[in-house]
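Hey,

The postdoc asked me to send both predictions to you directly instead of through the lab channel. I've kept everything plain text so nothing gets mangled by the mail client. Protein one:
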Amino acid sequence: MRSDLDEPVALRSGPRWRRQLALMPVALLFLIPLLWMISTSLKRHDQVFTWPPVLIPNPAQWHNFLDVLVKDGFGRYLLNTIALSTVVTVGTLFSATLTAYSLARVDWKWRNAAFLLVISTMLLPDFVTIIPLFSMYQKLGLVGGVPGFLPLVLPAWFGKAYFIFLMRQFMLGIPTELSDAARMDGCSELGILLRIVLPLCRPALLSVALFSIIATWSDVLQPLVYLRDEKYFTVSLGLAQFQGRYVTQWEQMLAAASVTAVPVLIVFVLAQKKFVRGISTTGIK
């Protein structure tokens, strides 16, 4: 005899596989450009526009990646971007966590007003502030060369509104009884943050880290403004330079594009479950 509990499971499982089946063509539609990019990056120049197209070239021209990374200096751009993304992500996690904890878990008089002030900065698009910021950094001698990285790093260490919002919303979902019990045991606010709140905020921390990595990895405007020397370029800025250099050599161009896109895609695929959980949980409160 079938119990009443079996019916909701059947109702849920039926539409679920239908939705997945319906989404497969959509997923394939988005995957085709990525697969075509990787396939073309492994072809010879005379195979790029052949008809019928060859999806898996034989033999694969792996030297296209070697030429891009070594001969054309794209490997240096990749190392610059990895270093920049690491420093920016660490600063983002540090500043967003401390600010969000103060706004969500510490009771002080003007915290709601401070939160509104932080959120209001999200209304300002980047192109509105980039000219006054450039003027300020130029007067400080922080444009071009190694100092040119500081304008890309410093904002992350002073908190970004969107990341503060994500962390605050997640922290609001953590029961306050846990913090109260720790205070009764003599734990300091820093101890509560490190021992109780942060371990429970791993999905939100991962979401913030992924957002920060993707934003830094794909940013073109900020490096274009502050980085003058080509040896300090990031992958996105280097890829923009490649568009003019390899206007007819599509295999080289798409090899550089693959080096730019695939690492971030792999990180996202490996962490997507916790990433989605961190984003969805921020809307609880």
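Protein two:
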Amino acid sequence: MNEELTVRRIGLGLMLAVLSAALFTLAFPPYDLWPLIFVGLVPMVVAQHRVMPPRLSGLAAGVGIGGFFWGYFGGMFAGSVWYMRWLPLFIGVVAALIGGRDRAFHERTAYRWFVLQGAAVWVGIEMVRGFVPVMGTWGFAAYALYEQPWLIQPVSIFGVYGLSLLVLLVNYALALGALALFDRRWRPQPGPLVDVRHARRWLLIIGATLIVWTTYSLVTFHVLRFAPSVRVAAIQPAFKIQTEAGRQKMYTLTHQAAEQGAQLIVWHEGALPFDPQAEHTADGSSALTTSLQALAAETGAHLVIGYAVQAEQGLRNEVTVLTPEGEFLGVYGKDHPVAWGGETSLTRGTY
């Protein structure tokens, strides 16, 4: 009977971890259900600290976090090197190893550090991996709020890590409250319980912090609406520009952005397979350059154009700015310390 109960707890714990992975994934594009970012970790944390057997508690974190990155990346690295395709699995293993120690620590310390430790570990890892070229800033918790300018204005003071910290503090405060409620109804094994008053204090503290953050953001956002500004548009098509029809679609999207008041219109990385500043009459690039200059003149906007050209020395992954007057304002060459897409700019060197 005890063995059967253990199997059930493992199954339920894994289901809760998968639920967290799904909630966090749905908070990001293309789903953009951004409120889920504030509650997404709660099922996983409950599974880790109450549902799963203690020795397997880290498995909940591994499945939840690794599953999130699997959903977040999708098929992004389908044709890439093997270690990028298996990256979610590696992340899950690391999360399971780190998370395996959390439960015993918080039981020993009566959950005094539960909210702070959980949020600090997540954001601390974000800060570290921001320096790791293979991982970069993919999947930062704060990125789920990219379409909510009314909520993210304090980032100008606290940075993206401050916003991620707020998101994680809310998650762990809610998780602590969920554990307190869990302990009032069930006690699957001997061990310290979460004090309801302790959980309530943290919910009030984090709730007040969220209110202050949101109030400041709304006031700042309202004030900035009346300040001088430059409207910027990003053109991100869901296709590669390999045909004339694809280029015309980009032109149409650029016109639409200009009609909405955009003064700076940014095309995506590697949008063109040729250098728009060069003259290559053999393949028609000269005519295409002329058409780009006409596009900038028609829209009255500065166009930021990405292009990727395979040269003898390697890949030139670059960007240039085209003014409405038809003038090119130099080149930015991508300098990315990873072995794809321009690890060192052939044109500009290393910055």
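Summary for protein two, as requested: Strands lie at 232-235, 264-267, 302-311, 314-322, 328-333.

Thanks,
C.
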